[in-house]
Amino acid sequence: MENEKIELLKTYLSLYINPMTVLQSQKAGDSPYVILDVRNAPAPVKKVQIKGAQALAAKDLADHLGELDKSKTYVVYDWNSGTILGQQALLILLQAGFKAFELAGALEGWQGMNLPVENV
Amino acid sequence: MENEKIELLKTYLSLYINPMTVLQSQKAGDSPYVILDVRNAPAPVKKVQIKGAQALAAKDLADHLGELDKSKTYVVYDWNSGTILGQQALLILLQAGFKAFELAGALEGWQGMNLPVENV
Amino acid sequence: MENEKIELLKTYLSLYINPMTVLQSQKAGDSPYVILDVRNAPAPVKKVQIKGAQALAAKDLADHLGELDKSKTYVVYDWNSGTILGQQALLILLQAGFKAFELAGALEGWQGMNLPVENV
Q: Which InterPro entries does the entry link to (chains A, B, C) (predicted)?
């Protein structure tokens, strides 16, 4: 059972990337990360997004894979960690052969650490 | 590793059902879904529940399986996605051969989307 | 698929321990549990911690394993269930052969149930 627990944790953690990893890479320049806001909501409901994110709603993702770049690493985020939209988007990206992670803590965690956002 | 990540996401996501799926099915009539409120709390603490939910506390679930209907699909929910009560209840139901999901986002997510609740 | 769902839930749930299990064991005396606060934050940011917890930041954990006691069972917690720091710490402890769990609901859940905390 201990091995199963360790394997589950390893695989689960490999799905996620920490906000500071993304932010520090962006500050250093030439970052491989593209942040995708996959919330299924119009801009007036979203109000803000992570600074520099691209909006691509999870419900539209499968139809727009051709516009993505396989040399990049996609970091998807949703409202908070209680939703499954980010994981659904991540599954679509991984199944299509993209390098991708879900942002640990989602938008709520990013804002909780006072990291940069912008109006949408 | 990519295959393990994809398999984990697929299996994990198969445990959950989105609030809108349940709600739209109920509005269309003849819904297979029965929503179970599995919070281990008395009514004055719970105050409200999802509209039309049946209260069956996770701690009592194993003793009341005989009252459930195998032709239905049970949707369990707890306070929020940070607790494990919903997953414990889901495991009991799946092991007993019931069709069941955990409600993505739990009660907190349901209320965050202003979906219908009722006093208890 | 049902078997995979059940196995995932079993393994996932085996990573967690409920707050009341820890608290009741501590009240009964001679508890095997040692609560580790693994938040990577200085005391002024943390402000409070779970009563009786030991502070050992996740970022420092790998370098301090020699100070831990294999006869104990470690219960790690982070700010809330939306972060992955607790799971990262849990993985380090399990891989090093310690008995360990993550606290279900994290600090946020503990405080939400009005369980005892102390200033740091």
A: GlpE_sulfurtransferase (IPR050229), Rhodanese-like_dom (IPR001763), Rhodanese-like_dom_sf (IPR036873)
The Cα C94–Cα C50 span in angstroms is: 22
Chain A residues with CB-CB distance to C95 below 8 A: 6
Mean pLDDT of the residues in chain B: 95
Question: Is the separation of the CB atoms in B44 and B69 below 8 Å?
Answer: no
In DSSP notation, A34-88 reads EEEE---S-HHHH-EEETT-EE--HHHHGGGGGGS-TTSEEEEE-S-TT-SHHHH
What ipTM score was computed for the predicted complex, to two decimals? 0.93
Q: Which alpha helices (H) appear in C2-97, and where do they start and end? A: 2-13, 19-28, 43-46, 58-61, 85-95
Q: What are the φ and ψ backbone dihedral angles of C39, each rounded to 5 degrees?
A: -60, 135
User: Which chains pack against A, by 3+ Cβ pairs within 8 A?
Assistant: B, C
- How many C-beta neighbours within 10 Å does residue B10 have? 14
Sheet hosting strand B99-103, strand order edge to edge: B16-17, B99-103, B73-77, B33-37, B54-55
What's the CA gap between B86 and B109, in Å, rounded? 14
Chain centroid, CA C42 distance in Å: 18
Q: Taking the model in full, what pTM does it have?
A: 0.93
List domains and CATH numbers for chain A.
16-119 (3.40.250.10)
Asked if A81 reaches chain B (Cβ–Cβ under 8 Å), the answer is yes
Asked if the Cβ–Cβ distance from A94 to B13 is below 8 Å, we say no
Q: Is residue B1's pLDDT more than 80?
A: no
Handedness of CA A53, A57, A62, A64 (dihedral sign): negative
Give the pLDDT mean for B96-111: 95
- The alpha carbons of chain A give a radius of gyration, in whole angstroms, of 14
